[in-house]
Automatic annotation (TrEMBL), chain B:
This is Anti-anti-sigma factor. It comes from Heliobacterium mobile (Heliobacillus mobilis). Residues 29-113 form the STAS domain. Pfam families: STAS. InterPro entries: Bact_StressResp_Reg (IPR051932), STAS_dom (IPR002645), STAS_dom_sf (IPR036513).
C-alpha cells in the first residue's frame, strides 16, 4: 500500500506536464461540443491546480477517506468546477467526466511505466481507481446540489412574482392569480392577501382567476378557504374572471360557491366593490 | 380570578382582549358579557382580538357561541381586528364563524354596527335615554 501510493504520486509529479496534456486532450474530446464554453487556458490552469493539490493531499494523507482535512483543497477545486459547470448548463456526465478522464490519462501513464510489472500495475490501478471514483462521486454530488439550488431559487422567484397584491382604490385590493394553484401557492397567496388587507386597511378584496387554467375541487376549496379567512378579518372577497368553461366545471363538480360573491370580469367585480363602498364612477362631459 | 374588562360605549359594549386566552377566561367573559348585555340593553358587542396571536378550536367556538347568545338577547356581535395568522388557523380548524359579523378594526366595527342598527353617530346615547 505505502509502496503503491509513493509510486503513483511520484509518477504524477514527475510526469505532470505529460499527464496534464493527455488529460486535457481526453477531456476536450468528451466535451467536443462545448469548446466554446470553457477557455482552454482556463481549463489548463484549473487542471494543473487540481493535480498539484491532489499530489500534495495524497502525499500527506491516506487515500481511503477524501473527507479528511488534507483533501480540503482538492474538494474545494472540484466543488468550484462542478458548481460552475452546473450553472453554465453542462450535463451531469460532462461534469463527471472531468475526473473520470483523469483516471484514463493516469492509467495510460501507469501502463507505460509499469507495463512489464503486472503486480505493481494492478495495485496502482486499484488504488488510483478507488480514490478517483470517490472524487468523481463527490463532483457529481456538488453538481446536483448546485442544480437544486438553482431550481429552489427559481421556485421562490416564481412564488414571489406570481402573487402581487394591487391596491385598486381606497379600501379595494385586487389579487390577479396566474397559473396553476396548488396548496403551496395558495398558502402564499392567502398570506399575502391577508397581510395586504391588514396593511392597507381594505375591506374589499378582488381575487381574479382569469389566469388560472383549470379549477378543480381542490382549487375551489383553496379559494373558499382564502375567502373565509379574509372574511374572518373583516374583509369581503369577490371572485372575478370566471370564464364560461370554468363556471361549467364548477357546477359540474358540485362545488358550492353560493356564499362567495362572484363576477365574470374584473370590471364587474370593481363595479361591485365600488358599490359596496358606496362609491361611483361618473363621466364628466363627453368623451 | 383574572377577568377581561368590558367597557360600555353608548349602546355598545367593547371588549378588548389583551391577554392570552385560556378556557376559563373565555367562560368568564361569556358570563360577564351576557349579564351586562341584559343589564344595559346593549344592542351591539365589539370583541377586539387584534392583540391575540393564537387561538385554539375551543376559543374559536366560544367566540361563535358568544355571538349566538347575544343575538338571542337582541344584540349583534362583531369580532374585530383578527390577525392574518389567526384567520388562517381558524379556517384550517374549520371554524368560519358563520353568522358572526367581522371588521378590520374597532372603528369600522362600530360603523358596521351603526349601519346595521341604523343609528346615526349623534344618536349614540339614544338608547340610554329611552330606558
Amino acid at each position: 500500500m505505502e509502496m503503491a501510493k509513493a509510486n503513483t504520486i511520484r509518477l504524477m509529479s514527475e510526469k505532470m506536464d505529460e499527464l496534464l496534456q493527455h488529460w486535457i486532450e481526453l477531456h476536450l474530446t468528451n466535451l467536443s461540443l462545448r469548446k466554446d464554453m470553457i477557455g482552454n487556458e482556463n481549463l489548463y490552469r484549473q487542471s494543473k491546480d487540481f493535480i498539484e493539490a491532489f499530489v500534495q493531499a495524497a502525499d500527506g494523507a491516506d487515500l481511503e477517506d477524501i473527507n479528511r482535512v488534507e483533501w480540503t483543497s482538492v474538494r474545494k477545486i472540484l466543488a468550484e468546477i462542478s458548481t460552475n459547470r452546473s450553472r453554465q448548463g453542462y450535463s451531469p456526465s460532462e461534469t463527471a467526466s472531468y475526473v473520470f478522464t483523469l483516471k484514463e490519462a493516469l492509467f495510460r501513464l501507469l501502463q507505460k511505466e509499469y507495463g512489464l510489472q503486472p503486480d505493481i500495475l494492478i495495485q496502482e490501478t486499484l488504488t488510483i481507481s478507488k480514490i478517483l471514483d470517490k472524487l468523481g462521486l463527490y463532483t457529481f454530488e456538488t453538481y446536483s446540489k448546485a442544480r437544486e439550488e438553482v431550481i429552489y431559487r427559481q421556485q421562490q422567484e416564481m412564488l414571489e412574482l406570481s402573487t402581487p397584491v394591487i391596491r385598486l382604490w381606497d379600501g379595494i385590493l385586487a389579487l390577479p392569480l396566474i397559473g396553476t394553484l396548488d396548496s403551496g401557492r395558495t398558502q402564499v397567496v392567502m398570506e399575502n392577501l391577508l397581510r395586504g388587507i391588514l396593511s392597507t386597511n381594505s375591506d374589499v378584496a378582488i381575487l381574479d382567476i382569469s389566469g388560472v387554467p383549470t379549477v378543480d375541487t381542490l382549487v375551489a376549496q383553496h379559494i373558499i378557504k382564502t375567502v373565509s379567512a379574509a372574511r374572518l378579518m373583516g374583509a369581503e372577497c369577490i371572485i372575478s374572471g370566471i370564464r364560461p368553461e370554468i363556471a361549467q366545471t364548477i357546477v359540474q363538480l358540485g362545488v358550492d360557491l353560493s356564499m362567495v360573491k362572484t363576477r365574470a370580469t374584473l370590471a364587474g367585480a370593481l363595479k361591485l366593490a365600488l358599490d359596496m363602498r358606496k362609491l361611483t364612477i361618473v363621466q364628466i362631459g363627453k368623451a | 380570578m383574572e377577568r377581561i374588562p368590558i367597557i360600555k360605549m353608548g349602546p355598545f359594549l367593547l371588549v378588548t382582549i389583551q391577554v392570552d386566552m385560556h378556557d376559563r377566561l373565555v367562560m368568564a367573559l361569556q358570563e360577564d358579557l351576557t349579564e351586562l348585555v341584559s343589564a344595559t340593553g346593549a344592542r351591539g358587542v365589539l370583541i377586539d382580538i387584534s392583540s391575540l396571536d393564537m387561538v385554539d378550536s375551543y376559543i374559536g367556538r366560544m367566540l361563535g357561541g358568544i355571538a349566538s347568545i347575544t343575538s338571542l338577547m337582541n344584540a349583534y356581535t362583531v369580532v374585530v381586528g383578527m390577525q392574518p395568522a389567526v384567520a388562517i388557523t381558524m379556517v384550517e380548524l374549520g371554524i368560519s364563524l358563520q353568522g358572526v359579523m367581522t371588521a378590520l378594526n374597532v372603528e369600522k366595527g362600530m360603523d358596521l354596527l351603526r349601519a346595521t342598527l341604523m343609528i346615526s353617530p349623534d344618536q349614540d346615547h339614544g338608547i340610554d335615554r329611552e330606558e
